[in-house]
Structure formats: C-alpha cells, structure tokens
Amino acid sequence: MNKKPLVSVYIPTHNRAELLSNAVKSVINQTYKNIEIIICNDGSGDNTDDVVNKLQKEYKDIPFVYLKNDSPMGACFSRNRCIAAASGYYLTGLDDDDYFLPNRIESLIKVCNERKIDLVCSNLIFKDGNKLKRGKNNSGVITSIDMGYENLVGNQLLTRLSYFEDVGGFDTNFPAWQDYDLWYRIIMKFGPCIKTNEATYVMDVENDRKRISTSSKAHIGYRSFIEKHSETLNEEMKSSLFIRDLINRNKKIPLKTLLSSGRKVASFKHNMRLCFPVVNSIAAFVREIKK
Known about the structure:
Layout: E1 7-13, H1 17-28, E2 35-42, H2 48-58, E3 64-69, H3 75-85, E4 90-93, E5 99-100, H4 104-115, E6 119-128, E7 131-134, E8 140-142, H5 144-149, E9 158-160, H6 161-167, H7 178-190, E10 193-204, H8 205-208, H9 217-228, H10 235-248, H11 255-260, H12 262-266, H13 277-289
Parallel strand pairs: 1-2, 1-4, 2-3, 6-10
Antiparallel strand pairs: 4-9, 5-10, 6-7, 6-9, 8-10
Helix pairs in contact: 1-2, 9-10
Keywords: Glycosyltransferase, Transferase
Organism: Raoultella planticola
Protein name: Putative glucuronosyltransferase
C-alpha cells in the first residue's frame, strides 16, 4: 500500500492537443508516483479526445479523470471542475503548454514534510523556442503581507485540496489575475507559503505571449483584484500593483510614478528585482537624495 499522500494534478486545455500530450507525460514521468491526473477539455475543436484516449490506453496504471465542457467556458471554470473531481490530499496545477521537471512533485512534497507546511511553490524555467532559461531566484517565506505587493507565488501552487475547496476555488468573474486572487485568499487564510530554491516548472513563454495577460483584459483583472481585496490592501500595496498592471500590459511607467514608489518598492521583504530592475535603481537614487 502506498503511504505517500495522493497528489491530484489538474490540467485545463483548449485546442492544444499536441502540447497537452507533452504536459501530461511530464506528470506521468514524475519520480513521485502516487498521483492522479485530471484533465478538463474546455470545448476544444481539435483532436484532444484522441490524444487523451491514447494516453489513457498507454498508461493504464495512472489514474485519469477526463472532463469535457460542451463549449468553451474558460480556464477558471475548467480548473474548478477539476478541483471538484479531485480526490488527492494535495492538489496542484499545470497549464497545457507547460511541463514539469521529473522531480517537481517529489521536491515540493519533501518541503511540505521537512518544513511542516502545506503551501509550497517553486521557481520557474522559461522556455522560448528551443532555449531554456531559469528565472531569477526568489525563494523564501511568502506571507500574506508579501502577497499584497505582488504575486510572488507565480502561476502554480501545491497545497491541500481542502484549502482550494475552503476558499471557493478560482473566481470565474476574473478575466485575468485569477491565480493571484486565489493564492492571495489561500495564503491569507492558511499561509504562509514556502517558495523553494529549485526551479521545477517549465513555462512556455512563446505561447505565453499570446495569453490573456498581454490583452486589455489584464487591466480588468487588476481592477477586480483591487476592488475585491481593498480592505486588506494598504496604499503602498495598491501603488505596487498599479505598477505591476502597467508592466503586464507593456505600458510606459511615468517617471513620477517610479520616483514616488521608490521607498515602497525598496521596502518589500521579497525584493522586486525579478520584475522591476529599473525601479530598484531609481529607488536607490531616491533614498540618496532624501537623506
């Protein structure tokens, strides 16, 4: 009998059959073996059914749950369907154009066991065509206060299934910032979270350029986040999120905004070098001229 806790991995997918196969196989090839894979086909018009059926036949020893939406309902709706169908103690997600390194789940569970904590995430590796590049290290403890300034978790979190359920899963009213909203709610209630030094999640930034974060919907997501969490966000946090919204939408940031945010950005426990290299240099300049 396998005494290791079951980990459910949810994968929403829409018209990415070939990429989906690679994502699913990266879960199947995990060194941690007590897993189940939950796929939600969000109204795809390609051969996703055939790809999933082939995988199920080829890997009969892997528990699969395959869900289908009759028409496209969106990633959050699909993720919530996966959450409702999950039976694992732990739950984590994977986008259909990304993939796990073989030791991802094992390394995250190891942190859970060693640190006696059930909220864990990792650093990222970015894939652009045939090139792989590790993102800058941003490891450590992530508190609810830290999360008020920026989504330091990233796009995926491993935690208890019950935590997802307790806070109500993904908010389908958000056109963007959905991950951030959910992680913020979970960490507010059950945190803090540990971000490991290891980078075990590979994000395809070539496909990511086409994602929602580059569209006008990103600003709606930002506004929705600010309005939903206005009671727990102070002015410094709102200022930081305002800058983050501009960066997400590739907008120019007024120098006045950067200068006025210098001290605030510099004060983050988890510094913003990962996202704001220009802000850091300006923050240092502001500190000097204000002495």
